[in-house]
Amino acid sequence: MNVYICQISILNRTKLYKKMKRNYHVPFFVLILLIGVNSAFAQSKLSSSPFNAIVTQYLQTEKGALGLNDIDVADLYIANEVFSKKSQITHLYIVQRYQGVEIFNAISSVAIKDGKVHYFANNFIGDIAQKINSSIPSITPIVAIQKVSAHFGLGSVGNLTEVSSRENKHEFSPGNISNSNIPVQLVYHFNAEENQLTLAWDLSIDQLDGQHWRSVRVNALTGEIIDSNDWVSSCGFGDIHNEIEHNNSPLFHHQMSPMFADGSQYNVFPFPIESPNHGPRALLTEPSNDSASPYGWHDTDAANGAEHTITRGNNVWAQDDIDGNNGTTGYSPDGTAALNFNFALDLNVEASNYLDASLTNLFYVNNIMHDVWYQYGFDEASGNFQQNNYGNGGLGNDYVVAQGQDGSSTDNANFATPPDGNNPRMQMYMWGPYSLPQPSTINNSALAGSYTASYPASDAANNITAPSSTPVTANLALALDGAAAPNEACNALVNGANVSGKIAVIKRGNCDFVVKIQNAQNAGAVAVIMVNHNNPTNDPTYTEYVNMAGLVNPPFTIPSIFVNYADGQQIIDALTNGQTINATIANNGPYPNDGSFDNGIVAHEYGHGISTRLTGGPGTSNCLNNGEQMGEGWSDWFALMLTLKSGDQPGDIRGIATFASGQEIDEVGIRPVPYSTDFAVNDYTYAATNDDTIIGTIDGEPVAWNEITHNIGFVWATILWDLNWAYIEKYGFDPDLYNGTGGNNRAMQIVIDGLKLQPCNPGFVDGRNAILSADMALTGGEDQCLIWEVFANRGVGFNAAEGANPFSSSMTDQVEDFTLPPNDHPSLDNCTFLSVNENKLNEYQIYPNPASNEINIKVNKYFGDVQVSMFDINGRKIFSQVVTLENTVKVNIENLQSGMYIMNIAG
User: Fold this and answer.
1) Helices 631-642 and 599-614 meet at what angle, rounded to 10?
2) What string of DSSP letters covers 486-555?
3) What is the mean pLDDT of residues 716-731?
């Protein structure tokens, strides 16, 4: 018996495309081959040609369609040239100038592939000669710096000297207002409302407090501040609704031994574990990646042997900034010459007790972000963060300065990204605590038990001492000062002998807390319990300690706490009745959560650096400053991708920062709703990005979208999360983030390449188009239909629009659309659901032919569950079987009669 598969048939594209609109599970190829006939299909080789000639020719041909004239394209220069290995694209970031003066953010991204322009993301201004207001500045760069300092309240500018000067660029010393030198450049700034190019000084100041890195444009004629943005992405996270040892973690199952073994060990929460709530710590050995960190994580000189034994190396320097002074020489744990960073961790104590473990985890996550995303194109030439670029292009001397347990804020985190060659800075804060402390325990009598109380954080500047983990145990004594209200301790105590060595109980009253505590300390009290006596209905958490101003002589040395009326009055009544009450005051929790243990937050912050450096090229940090930019969305997505694990499902609830914000792992996190492909959980679409959208109510009042944190980014990350799952559905999941070939790996690659392709100041449509172009470069367009389907499903369909405002600057004019491109759209010609002649035949083999009892189907990638059907020459289905199409699958056909058949494979 011989079975031949030889009938050629072409599917009807229109009918099939209509099916695709409804469901991903459609026939993705039809094999109509004569088995036994061998054919060879070689992939075309990519080549390149001089990009200057290519771009010039392209612009001369397309300038009319782009709305440009000869003057507009007469003075261009290439700021950065980046080659992407996976896509074989040379990315050119071209800056528009007029008579040698740059036009601020007029940066177009041009992709060269196969010797021609593959993609042109236009961001040039048209008719520039008619829009120039002046070519000669009236104020000097120094005056511009002074104007910025006065505008933002940075203090007096002093000791300002010019360090260097060439053409229109100057560099000045910090001038007592910046942490680094101040660059100033003459530019033109485009005012869209007035349709004018204004001559301006462009400068940046890294504020001394580390909270802002101002990038500012100053009118070079008037000194007016006309535009500014912040290189510090401050994420506003605060507005929110058992240890085991292993030698490895799931992330590294496919890792090879490091090129240079350094014996390093790190006890951390290893990816894909997201936080202490998601899983235990593990002891990892030499987890650095050969291609991204070929000399390990502690090298800086490209020679065998670590230059640093602390949490410092080529990619990051993790240090504390507990005092919040933004210094760059904070404490770092020392792993000694053995590089053994295996530190104990007990989260049920004050954070200062586990600083070493915290900074080790911070060091680990930063390095993993560096190493993983290096594989997808965030490398040296693209502007990644390294001290030494090992001769691979780009500018070095820009490792991440990661500051843990930063004391300058709480319930937040941020990342500052200056241009390539300048150190970015990550600041990780403490979060919470999220339940009320019980620092007071009565040890005897009918009142025995723990009591809720509030207390201030220790503040040496204001002489405030909070309870510590060292308990203070003593009998209680009611303070008496001999006044009309004797228990308020507003005067020197008259019962000092009775109070000495005891815990003084004082009523809130008619004088400052500092006076009361001072009088108790002067009388020899070892601690103070303040009773809220003025307002019996007051919340127990209420405190005025934040308003305390310390006394200079002497400073407080005793702790103090604040209890509510009900609890405090019981104590006062018992003491008045002569009872002896013994109590203990101690800081026994709850304690704040350390953001450095929330791997998702650290990854999110690092992600800001990736999206900033890749958009518009590594030479600028100003291309994600427009209203519709999606920086927060990419950052959430980066975190989601590294914490994705085998067994996860697309409809699962994924919250952001659930550990840091004191939530369970299945709670909403700090976004409006969790991330999920399930519209019953997350039904947000492109229209929700409009700033004036009313999305719900809080306490019965309508809430506008612009009142919810991360509005634009949240929707963008939702779409990218859907895209990831569409890829996984098609290609499967691979836990190997370095060398994997699964759908998640493909999604990671296409998003990184999309970042490189999109223009300066992108919106959602720009981002979508860049991802579509990346797919064309990476696969020849295999997944165009998949990408269109995902974006259209969330409102960024074929007719979606970013609005009339140029450069996606408005957040109120987006237009959503759910339609797919028309059937004859060029992007659909490459989708892999058409006939075999339009598919990549080298992806699979069918043999033998003729066949007798079984047919082998061999594929080079994972296709998931498919249905294999056989049709006779009259079109009747006579056989069907569901198989998992991966590697080689055998199909039993021994019951078929001899003849010719058509094989159809649908998934």
Assistant:
1) 130
2) GGG--S--S-HHHHTTSEEEEE--SS-HHHHHHHHHHTT-SEEEEE--S-TTS-TT---GGG----SSSP
3) 96
Record the pTM: 0.79
Kindly tell me the number of DSSP H helices and DSSP E strands found in the chain.
Answer: 13, 36
Give per-residue burial for 738-757: e unless 16+ CB within 10 Å, then b: bebebbbbbbbbbbbbbbbb
**Is residue 167 classed as helix, strand or coil in its secondary structure?**
coil
Per residue, the 3-state secondary structure of 184-230, as one string, reads EEEEEEEECCCCEEEEEEEEEEEECCCCCEEEEEEECCCCCEEEEEE
Helix axes 764-779, 784-793, angle to 10 degrees: 160
Q: Which residues of 321-339 are buried (b: 16+ CB within 10 A; e: fewer)?
A: bbebebeeebbbbebeeeb
CATH code, 626-839: 1.10.390.10
Start-to-end Cα distance in the chain? 29
- Render the burial of 655-688: b for 16+ CB within 10 Å, e for the rest: bbbbbbbbbeeeebbbbbbbbbbeeeebebbbbb
Which amino acid is it at 138? S
What is the CATH number assigned to the segment(s) 51-130?
A: 3.10.450.490
Give the DSSP letter of residue 462.
G
What does the pLDDT look like over 308-322, one tens digit per residue?
Answer: 999 999 999 999 999
In this structure, are residues 731 and 794 in contact, taking their beta carbons and an 8 Å threshold?
no
Write a three-state SS string for 593-662: EEHHHCHHHHHHHHHHHHHHHHCCCCCCCCCCCCCCCCHHHHHHHHHHHHCCCCCCCCCCCECECCCCCC
Sketch the domain layout of the chain as residue ranges: 3-41+844-906, 51-130, 141-230, 250-431+595-603, 440-585, 626-839
Counting residues of the chain whose pLDDT is more than 90, the rounded percentage is 62
Least confident of 64-78, 507-521, 769-783: 507-521
Chain segment 744-753, per-residue pLDDT in tens: 999 999 999 9
CA angle 763, 766, 772 (to 5 degrees): 140
Taking CA atoms, 536 is separated from 442, 487, 517, 560, 778, in Å, by 21, 16, 21, 20, 69
What are the tokens at 115?
A: 């010797």
CA atoms within 13 A on the CB side of 725: 20
Alpha-helical runs (H) found in 225-301:
none
Domains 51-130 and 141-230 share a fold: yes
Q: What phi, psi does 485 have (nearest 5°)? A: -110, 80
What does the alpha-carbon distance between residue 869 and residue 856 come to, in Å, rounded to a whole number?
Answer: 14
Helix (H) or strand (E) holding 720: helix 711-731
> Of how many residues is the chain composed?
907
User: Coil, strand or helix: which one is 827?
Assistant: helix
Pairing of strands 503-507, 527-531: parallel
Q: How far apart are CA 245 and CA 810, in angstroms?
A: 51
141-230 has which fold? Nuclear Transport Factor 2; Chain: A, (3.10.450)
